[in-house]
Design brief:
The chain is mainly beta. The protein has one domain: Porin (Beta Barrel), CATH 2.40.160. The protein has a 17-stranded antiparallel β-sheet that branches. Strands 15-16 form a two-stranded antiparallel sheet. The longest helix is centred in the first third of the chain and has 14 residues. The chain is globular. The two termini are about 15 Å apart.
């Protein structure tokens, strides 16, 4: 599962220095030229991002330099208790490779989890996944300016409780990738190119986790350090429009410092764990757009992201008695033409500690984002979640006549740090509801469907930055008929190597 694809939307484009690299040097009297303050901020940010000597290059703009958290780890150095990865710098070679434009990362996520009450079966399962990442920075490698190639492979082994829980929403989202089946497998899930085009326009092209792009949230996101339940990571209804990973293209344009518009087109013929695009690349398409509007309320950052998507793939027909079997059992059934969804995503910090550093965290365009931490591990997930507490909310609507659950709501509170001496711990309490369609509630085969709702609470203990333990508790009233309310207890162990 992609951990970093959401950064396409929040960190795309290029700072003015990159625009100069693509279009020639900016004139001193050009109003689009960087101000001295911005230049000083960018210089300070570059020094902070580059932990050691700046890599030699031909002056080409580098995404690893401008946006270090496009890769999982940007600084491997430090002692065993404070560095970002277990193997660290590997005698200086790993950091040297990174500074030359090559990043290699490996992560293991283990989830022992049990249905302790209700559900379909009171049983414990152990599921695990390994992620392998390779990133190549075209600027640092002196190939072309402003490009970053990413490759992400995954191995899954063990089993999950996603069926035993009896819930519609998977209780262990980590186990869905590279495909949701109960089998051991390895698959090249993602391969893509990030590319800056102009000073306020950028592109991503390739196979990615597009739901991770379209539905990011600081307090309930795809990061494997937050919620386990799929409905508290993303809007579940988006699964009807986007495969787990799929080929596609996206463009992001920033007309204003606090406004970003993202458009995308995705091939929905792609199947999880299958190479190529069965049925033909882009023969069925989901396309849409999202607007990202950010602000600061009394210096506390927030954002709202309304979005819309249209899919040409046919959802299940109204008069089909086998309607939900396609979703639950993966069967191929007759469908009705097209589908659409409106999605709304909100986040707002309500508290941040006063010791937050004053430095500016520039995005590609040179605009002020969130402050980086003064010290500590330089990893993408820590930078994305500065210390503080915030609230989140999601809402989605799809047509009743073609989706068995046609509305979705989730919300809660989450954060990182705040507790004295525990700056890297994360925590969250969330609620979700999949609201049943009035048109498609009664099924001939499965019986009467219902609205599903659930709650989850977790506390992510950062034993070290590279070793994290997360106790997790879920309570779910299933939307499936004849399934008892489930209590699910789990423990996630995450290791960065």
């Amino acid at each position: 599962m992609s951990m970093f694809s959401w950064r396409f939307c929040t960190r795309v484009g290029l700072v003015l220095a990159l625009a100069a690299g693509l279009s020639g040097p900016a004139r001193a009297d050009d109003p689009a030229s960087p101000t001295p303050a911005i230049e000083e901020q960018a210089s300070a940010q570059a020094q902070k991002s580059e932990p050691s000597e700046k890599p030699a290059s031909k002056g080409m703009p580098s995404l690893m330099t401008l946006v270090p958290d496009l890769t999982p780890v940007s600084d491997y150095r430090g002692d065993l208790w404070n560095r970002a990865a277990l193997f660290g710098d590997a005698f200086g070679k790993r950091q040297e490779l990174y500074e030359k434009g090559i990043a290699l990362d490996f992560m293991l996520t283990q989830v022992p989890q049990g249905v302790v009450s209700g559900g379909k079966d009171t049983v414990w399962k152990y599921g695990a996944s390994a992620d392998y990442y390779l990133f190549l920075d075209s600027g640092r490698l002196d190939l072309w300016p402003g490009g970053l190639l990413g490759i992400h492979a995954e191995t899954k082994f063990g089993r999950s409780l996603n069926l035993a829980s009896g819930a519609i929403s998977p209780v262990n989202a980590d186990y869905l990738w590279p495909s949701p089946g109960q089998k051991d497998e390895t698959f090249l899930s993602e391969y893509y190119l990030y590319q800056g085009l102009t000073e306020n326009l950028a592109m991503v092209l390739g196979r990615l986790n597009w739901v991770g792009i379209a539905d990011r949230n600081r307090f309930a996101n795809n990061e494997r350090t937050q919620f386990l339940n799929m409905s508290l990571r993303n809007t579940t209804l988006l699964g009807a429009f986007f495969p787990l990973t799929a080929h596609g293209v996206g463009l992001a344009y920033q007309p204003l410092p606090n406004v970003e518009v993202t458009t995308f087109a995705v091939s929905v013929n792609d199947e999880p764990g299958v190479y190529g695009s069965p049925g033909g690349l882009f023969s069925e398409v989901s396309a849409g757009a999202e607007i990202d509007i950010s602000w600061k309320l009394s210096d506390l950052p927030g954002a709202v992201r309304p979005g819309f998507a249209y899919g040409t793939e046919d959802p299940a027909a109204l008069d089909n008695g086998h309607l939900v079997l396609d979703k639950l059992l993966g069967l191929s059934i007759p469908r009705k033409n097209s589908n659409w969804i409106v999605n709304f995503n909100f986040e707002q910090y309500i508290y941040m500690p006063e010791h937050q550093p004053p430095e500016i965290n520039l995005d590609f365009f040179g605009h002020d984002r969130l402050p980086l931490q003064d010290a500590g591990p330089r990893t993408a997930d820590f930078d994305f979640n500065p210390e503080g507490v915030g609230v989140f909310f999601r809402f989605a609507y799809t047509p009743e006549d073609r989706n068995p659950w046609n509305m979705f709501v989730s919300g809660g509170v989450g954060g990182r740090g705040v507790i004295p001496g525990r700056p890297n711990d994360r925590y969250g309490l969330g609620f979700y509801s999949l609201i049943v369609s009035g048109d498609l509630r009664n099924q001939l085969i499965l019986g009467r469907l219902d609205t599903e709702w659930g709650m989850e609470v977790f506390y992510n203990i950062a034993i070290t930055p590279w070793l994290q333990l997360t106790p997790d508790l879920q309570y779910i009233q299933s939307g499936r008929p004849r399934v008892d309310d489930a209590v699910v207890l789990g423990f996630r162990v995450q290791t960065y190597f």
